[in-house]
Amino acid sequence: MIDQNVSTIDDFEWSAQLRYYMEDDQLLVHMINASLVYGYEYLGNSPRLVITPLTDRCYRVKKKKKKNYCVYVFFRAHALHGACTYLFIFGLFFFSNDANQRAKCFLLKDLAKALARQCIVFNCSDSLDCLAMGKFFKGLASSGAWSCFDEFNRINLEVLSVVAQQILTIQLAIRQNVETFFFEGVQLPLVSSCAVFITMNPGYAGRSELPDNLRALFRPVAMMVPDYALIAEIMLYSCGYLEARSLSKKLVFSLRLASEQLSSQCHYDFGMRNVKSVLTAAGNLKRQFPNENEDVLLLKAINDCNLSKFTSEDVPLFESITKDLFPQVHLATVSHEHLTEAMVQCCRQLNLQPTDTFLKRCIQIYENMKIFRYVSHH
């Protein structure tokens, strides 16, 4: 704010921020021309999303006049302005396949937390039918919760056509400002704060094109590639790293070079998901060894999160990349003597051969289990 010479409350940079005001014993959240009621939903002490210029742009509001009311886009939701009240209607958005799918859901969940709204993320598949979607919409309309349908275009085209009618039914009920409405022959209470959001990765196999009647209900928002270096820098600072700026550049550069120089494998991932895994591991190492050299901790985190998934031909290439970026860093060899002895003994009992490759893979699984929640080796 100071760097941009913001001096008045009418300045755009100030009005574009999420601001909280208590008005007539009601807590309202303002952003530009939109105003939404705070939900008071307790969501626990969950971690915060790193705020970057990209997330700021996603949170901002666009205004569009429509007949006798205005439609406001509040990040990924529409706010219907009628008379003096703001009502939440369904806001659905498409996202390009440039951005990480997981990051899109995190953005929505972070906004829901800022507004104290319950947000449920649902992973879509081609096995979903109209009955399942109808039950989901009934619950959302009755509870006022938000829902993000991840990879929405995986649903079959026949189901999507019916879903469009289901969504339109709830939209019309909210616009009419009714307390109850009929949904598929059942009378339901309506909480107007309910909202539905979708994410899409077009161009992948098994994805459907949205029908026109469903597309007409949506407001698209395209997400560009996130700033990995800025996100890594902020997260490293939050974990206690003093040289976060230089380390974040090394991390991003190492993964970028790996994506360019290593072989193409279906299980290789050098995007935001990998960056987040490395940062989580680096934070755990910093808390465990607070006085250790920070380059050593980051390099160990990079190796722990990546080496086990590389093919034998790609391991030397990746090690040469990290050696160029961390020239003065030498990682100490971790001893797994007791674990190795136990594995050799188990192999003999099962009449298996404890080869070096097999033992190495077992140790990698053990190390990965300390970092990741789920581990899968092929």
TrEMBL record:
Keyword tags: Membrane, Transmembrane, Transmembrane helix
Pfam families in the record: AAA_6
Transmembrane segments: 69-95
GO cellular component labels: dynein complex
Alphabetized GO MF terms: ATP binding; dynein intermediate chain binding; dynein light intermediate chain binding
Gene Ontology process terms (BP): microtubule-based movement
Domain Dynein heavy chain hydrolytic ATP-binding dynein motor region, first and last residues per copy: 38-60, 108-371
Stated family: Belongs to the dynein heavy chain family.
Protein name as it appears in the record: Dynein heavy chain hydrolytic ATP-binding dynein motor region domain-containing protein
